[in-house]
Amino acid sequence: MAKRRIFTAPSTQVVPIATGEARLEKVDGEPDSYVLHVNGVPSSSITLSDPARLDFEYLDWMSRIIETALPGGSLRAIHLGAAGCALARALDARRPGSRQTAIDIDPVLIDHVRTWFDLPRSPALALRAGDAAEEVATFRDDTADVIIRDAFSHDSVPTRLQTAEFYADCARVLKPAGLFLANVPDSGDHRVLRDEIRAASSAFAHVAAASESGVLKGRRRGNVIVAASQAPLPDAALDRSLRTAPTMATWLGADELRARFGR
């Protein structure tokens, strides 16, 4: 069988896309590592020769949550917000036989990413252009193991992906023990985070969160991972895993989250 071609990008590429501009930058000192910026926002870090490598801290946290909450075997995963498909590449490498769908609003970006990063082929990874809120509504009930929402319009989450109706659709699509993960940008006042927790709690029985301690205490802005499931989450194991991450994170189980942020 012929070896699949891997495209090695030049140090920098800037290309127009449907929503604005994408910039691909080579990482200094790395033979095949790149950072993809979408409309000025760092959106993916890709190492072509090591698909399991996740340099963005919040993606490493998501991966650890998935591995701990859904251990072993292949997965049916839906990614709402594709960008460079870094987490999808990692799941494909770590969980052989998984079937994934990645959805992005920008069809031109999807075409570039296919070329730049030589992604797994469908059905291992199917790429779909469309509005994530509309697309998730097309999936059948009880079919996904995990849904990952990592979609942004510039530096904020589209409002259609923060509503109770959106969360209800995700809960419908997930299997009874399925896992929902959302990347929430927290500015320090926790206003957006509290809204997300309320929306998630309207559709899921168990809602938790993970981030750096300073972010959770409101000392600085950063990414918070909101996790939700109809099944109880293994809080102690998740906390242990996240505390050993290269960038340590704190896990707030449902009770701790409720005490700190309410519902």
Write the layout of secondary structure elements.
Elements: E1 12-17, E2 20-26, E3 33-38, E4 41-47, H1 57-69, E5 76-80, H2 86-94, E6 99-104, H3 107-117, E7 125-129, H4 132-136, E8 144-149, H5 164-173, E9 174-186, H6 191-201, E10 206-211, H7 213-216, E11 222-229, H8 235-243, E12 250-252, H9 254-261
Keywords: Methyltransferase, Polyamine biosynthesis, Transferase
Pfam family, one: Methyltransf_11
Protein name: Type 11 methyltransferase
DSSP strand (E) fraction? Answer: 25-35%
C-alpha termini separation: 54 Å
The total domain count is 1
Number of helices: 9
Strand order in space, largest sheet? 7-6-5-8-9-11-10-12
Rough outline? globular
Structural class: alpha/beta
What would CATH call the homologous superfamily? Answer: Vaccinia Virus protein VP39
Number of strands: 12
Instruction: Identify the CATH architecture.
Output: 3-Layer(aba) Sandwich
Helix coverage percent? 25-40%
Q: Uncertain runs with pLDDT below 50, 5 residues or more? A: 1-6
- Please compute the radius of gyration using only Cα atoms: 18 Å
The pLDDT mean sits at 92
Q: What is the CATH top level name?
A: Alpha Beta
Question: Biggest β-sheet: count, sense, barrel?
Answer: 8 strands, mixed
Order of helices and strands: EEEEHEHEHEHEHEHEHEHEH
**Any idea of the CATH topology?**
Rossmann fold
Task: Give an overview of the whole structure.
This is Type 11 methyltransferase. GO terms for molecular function: S-adenosylmethionine-dependent methyltransferase activity. One of its GO terms (biological process) is polyamine biosynthetic process. The chain is of the alpha/beta class. The chain has a single domain (52-261), classed as Rossmann fold (3-Layer(aba) Sandwich). The protein is 30% helix and 30% strand. The protein has nine helices and twelve strands. It has helices at residues 57-69, 86-94, 107-117, 132-136, 164-173, 191-201, 213-216, 235-243, 254-261, and strands at residues 12-17, 20-26, 33-38, 41-47, 76-80, 99-104, 125-129, 144-149, 174-186, 206-211, 222-229, 250-252. It has an eight-stranded mixed sheet, with helices on both faces. Strands 1-2-3-4 form a four-stranded antiparallel sheet, with helices on one face. A hairpin with a 2-residue loop joins β1 (12-17) and β2. α1 (57-69) packs parallel to α2 (86-94) and α1 (57-69) packs antiparallel against α8 (235-243). The radius of gyration is 18 Å and the shape is globular.
